[in-house]
Amino acid sequence: MLQQLREEVLEANLALVRHGLVVLTWGNVSGRDAETGLVVIKPSGLAYGRMKASDMVVVSPNGEVVEGDLRPSTDTPTHLALYEGMPGIGGVVHTHSTWATAWAQARRAVPVLGTTHADMCPGPVGVTRHLSGAEVAGGYEAATGRVVLEEVGGRSPGEVPAVLVAGHGPFCWASSAQAAVEVAVTLEQVAKMAWLTVGLGPSTEEVALPAYLVEQHFNRKHGPGAYYGQEGHR
Asked: Exposure check for the chain: N or C terminus, fewer CB within 10 A?
């Protein structure tokens, strides 16, 4: 079942290793089949070097395992909440990548300081509030998805392709698992550059990218008249 999607999700998970976004088993990627709504996700705690496409777990939108011999990622309820809340997305990535997680632990949004960030999204990468004790006790992973959606605030997935979960790490999404990995890679670099820029001393207000440059860079990649890259390969 969903063999091509299994292969894509496996490759996306392995890409996290190649890009240095995961240590040990600290991360996961999922992909959703648009026709059936089924989600393919990495199994819980399985070492990346051992994973095969057949290890990927297929789950229903309510979290029931449809196919697979292994337990799905413990973050599966978070992924499912994001798919439900953003119907247009087809891939979700979660990591504990160093630079993005540092901003999450500091509970600071990543500000738009340069054009690399603006190429990814037109606003700061926001950070969630902390979950309450009652939310954690009532279903921690699903509640994590809900606070991410709370931070998205109804904006489009293209406008908000990632959110930092306070004290935890980034969740990223896009039209496919591969595209979501690209968001995660970009976010890590943007977070690193922002951290280094702030460390040089200026306030974020002093060095914030002008709004017209933010708009130009975002629109040339994602706007209705986008002209970055090749037609059909953006």
From this structure: C
